[in-house]
Amino acid sequence: MKSTTIGLPRGMLYYRYAPLWRAFFQEVGLETVVSDPTDREILEQGTALAIDEACLSLKIYLGHVAALVGKCDRILVPRVSNFGRHRNMCTRFEALPDLVQNVFRDAGQAFLFYNVDVLQKKDEAEAFLELGRTLGLPAKETRQAYKTAKKAEQSQLKAKVQRQELIRRQEGLKVLIAGHSYVVEDPYIGKTVTGYLKNAGVRVLRADLADRESALKHSRELSATCKWEMSREILGGIAQYREDVDGIILLSAFPCGPDAMVNELIARRVRDVPLLNLVLDSQSGTAGVETRLESFIDIIRFKKGVL
User: Residues 177, 249: contact at Cβ < 8 Å?
Assistant: First the structure.
């Protein structure tokens, strides 16, 4: 039991829950191994495993799972369905365990699952208690490990929010990126965008790094009916930061269904700030993305009279 190594695919919910997962497994004495940062090889491997209609983020995720096969005892694949009424996750997060088990059914790899579905009376704490039972851990040890890990997760998120608040108060050209963390933080797709902006002297804020509880409340300023939890957080971040930035970039992975709807909503509701809708796909070249970013920055500077 103590020699078990848990694999963490560096994709999708990893960028939201990595602090929680790492702290939890550390507390119960289990080692973790994380797949390498996304590169072209991982993307191509994931693309070969996915159906053509799958979004870019899912293709990348499957590539990360494939990269861990044979390198750990179990690979963690959570099912996160919802956090309550009107607080749903995209269906890909709900179907992820079934999808991964089917795709890798002949790989001889063991997986580890947990299930968050508050509408079925299974919150995150209960999900981790079930995870502990699967690993053969005593309930008391699991509860304490989860409690400690949750504090670590909240502490790291708070630190990120505080750092962003410092940037928010600084002078200079500021752009808000509205996108999911697994797109914005992915080194192969999203980091090329943030990296270009920073090199161009732009201060970058992120809509998904606002305080989550506050963001969910402020999201109603743009939509009272959006049901996707992470989309609501982004809407709330836009509502809170829109007056502090000179432009907003809607950054999404093709063909994300929720983003296609929510980004259209944002374009209709946010008309007082220059907006760029940037959709990334496996064929997106760096040069093309940089050209669009350069043009967008020039438009902002022209509007401010500093070009």
Answer: yes
Two structure tokens written together for 56:
């870019």
Instruction: Give the whole-angstrom CA distance, residue 181 versus residue 230.
Output: 9
| Per-residue confidence in pLDDT tens, the chain, 307 aa | 446 999 999 999 999 999 999 999 999 999 999 999 999 999 999 999 999 899 999 999 999 999 999 999 999 999 999 999 999 999 999 999 999 999 999 999 999 999 999 999 999 999 999 999 999 999 999 999 999 999 999 999 999 999 999 999 999 999 999 999 999 999 999 999 999 999 999 999 999 999 999 999 999 999 999 999 999 999 999 999 999 999 999 999 999 999 999 999 999 999 999 999 999 987 756 778 999 999 999 999 998 887 6
Polymer length in residues for the chain? 307
Instruction: Give Dmax over CA atoms of the chain in angstroms.
Output: 64
Per-residue H/E/C for the chain: CCCCEEEECCCCCHHHHHHHHHHHHHHCCCEEEECCCCCHHHHHHHHHHCCCCCCHHHHHHHHHHHHHCCCCCEEECCEEEECCCCCECCHHHHHHHHHHHHHCCCCCCEEECCEEEHHHCECHHHHHHHHHHHCCCCHHHHHHHHHHHHHHHHHHHHHHHHHHHHHHCCCCCEEEEECCHHHHCCCCCHHHHHHHHHHCCCEEEEHHHCCHHHHHHHHHHCCCCCCEHHHHHHHHHHHHHHHHCCEEEEEEECCCHHHHHHHHHHHHHCCCCCEEEEEECCCCCHHHHHHHHHHHHHHHHHHHCCC
Tokens representing 296 are 């967008």
